[in-house]
Design goal:
This protein is mainly α. It has one helix and no strands.
């Protein structure tokens, strides 16, 4: 609980012995022990409730994010299969997109255009 050294605890015990006397000291120590035990129990219950509430909030936010992503998510489309001629189905579109040409190395980036 607090940073009490051996000398501080001994001083508190001697003062308690002088003030309460040898007959009432065990009863007072028992009462203090019960109070500390009750305080720890209440503190543990509070910590457990806070931890459970945080876990529920975290679970609810994760679920809400997943639902939001699911509402905006479209399933991936399978790749188009080449026609019998071996050419892609969008060969004549002239879109000039970033897709590499068939047979080109995709790691080299987009193919240069002839406009330059």
């Amino acid at each position: 609980m607090s940073n009490l050294g051996g000398l501080e605890i001994l001083t508190i015990l001697v003062i308690a012995l002088v003030v309460l006397g040898p007959t009432k000291l065990p009863e007072a120590a028992r009462s203090v022990g019960k109070a500390v035990n009750e305080l720890r129990r209440i503190s543990g219950g509070f910590q457990r409730e806070m931890r459970d509430a945080m876990n529920e909030m975290n679970d609810a936010s994760i679920e809400a994010e997943a639902r939001a992503r699911g509402a905006h998510h479209t399933p991936p489309t399978p790749p188009a299969e080449p026609t019998s001629g071996g050419a892609p189905s969008d060969a004549g579109s002239g879109s000039g997109g970033s897709d590499p040409a068939p047979g080109a190395d995709p790691s080299s980036g987009p193919a240069p255009t002839s406009d330059e």
